[in-house]
Amino acid sequence: MNKTLDPTVDQAFNLAVEAHRGQYRKGNCEPYVCHPIRVWWLVRDARLNVFVQAAALLHDVLEDTDRGILEFPRPIQCMVLALTKPEGGNKQDGIDKLRAEGNHGAVMIKLADRLDNLNTSTDAKMVNSFLPSTQELLSLARDLTLNESVPGLYEALFTETATALNYGVPGGFKKPE
Fold it and tell me: Could you tell me the residue range of the domain that residue 63 belongs to?
């Protein structure tokens, strides 16, 4: 049982642990729940509100488990739904859905999610698969002016992406202006 300063975040933390029990990250033997916890840390450290924090903990529940989130307030449900890729969809489909929704909280969570994925992946092929949609994600964040409201997340993701591209990914990466 987790204890933070907020009961909604505690509830989300406990549900994430329960829902992801027995799941492991691709390519290593780390319990999957470590990923949403790190995403939560990033949004918490960016001083985002408790609804965004709770949604960060739950961001993969609908996509990767058979557990629902109806017991949470509607703003949390909306963020998690915005972050859930359409069935059979790819990373770009997920970014397109975020753009259509325009949910600032969901986009901030996606920035933290992508940053954690880039920071923790040991599979170069997987990192390469994230890069095209990451450029689009950074552009979306800029369009929503999130680069100004959460500059730390935005800059960290840009830096990680640029670093990954320096390791042989063709194309070119430009910081959205």
Answer: 7-165
pLDDT (tens digit per residue) in 124-156:
787 788 888 888 888 888 888 877 777 777 788
* Count of structural domains, the chain: 1
Q: What is the CATH classification number for the domain harbouring 79?
A: 1.10.3210.10
pLDDT at 73 > cutoff 70? yes
**Residues 153, 146: Cα–Cα separation, whole Å:** 9
Backbone angles phi, psi at 31, to 5 degrees: -55, 135
Taking the C-alpha atoms of residue 146 and residue 167, their distance in angstroms, rounded to an integer, is 27
Report the candidate in 94, 5, 3 with the shortest Cα–Cα distance to residue 47: 5
pTM: 0.86
Distance CA 109, CA 47 (A): 12
Residue 176 resides in a domain = no
**DSSP characters for 67-125?**
---TTS-HHHHHHHHHHSPPTT--HHHHHHHHHHH--HHHHHHHHHHHHHHHHH---HH
**pLDDT, averaged across the chain:** 85
Average pLDDT over residues 57-63: 96
